[in-house]
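sorry for the late reply, my laptop died twice this morning and i had to redo everyting from scratch. anyway the thing you sent over, i finally got around to it. pasting the sequence first so we're on the same page, its 110 residues, then the predicted structure underneath. double check i copied it right bc i was rushing
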Amino acid sequence: MGRAATEEGFLLPLRDEEGQGFWEGALRGELRIQACGSCDRLRFPPRPMCPHCRSTDSQWKTMSGRGTIWSFVVAHPPLLEAYQSVAPYNVIVVALDEDSLIRLVGNLVA
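ok and here's the structure:
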């Protein structure tokens, strides 16, 4: 899942076919992770083939949304000029409770 930028310079996710289930879940307030349809292992980022068993079968599973902060940083000043108005801001890496090898990057809001 790559990134694009708005006219103001803010980063936006690029949506592709493989990640569509993730974004559909996000619109519903759900955290969905792709799982192999054969061996049932979770995989992120989404991709067409399981790296474990090489199956091309996949499904989307809704996660609890719980995890452990694995790492964090507070950006002072921001690397991109567009983010100056929200600096300082935090960036966290969260290891999911369902699979601690899957780590998502975001910010802590509350």
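Strands lie at 3-5, 11-13, 32-36, 42-43, 58-62, 67-75, 89-96, 103-106.
thats about all i looked at so far, will dig more tmrw
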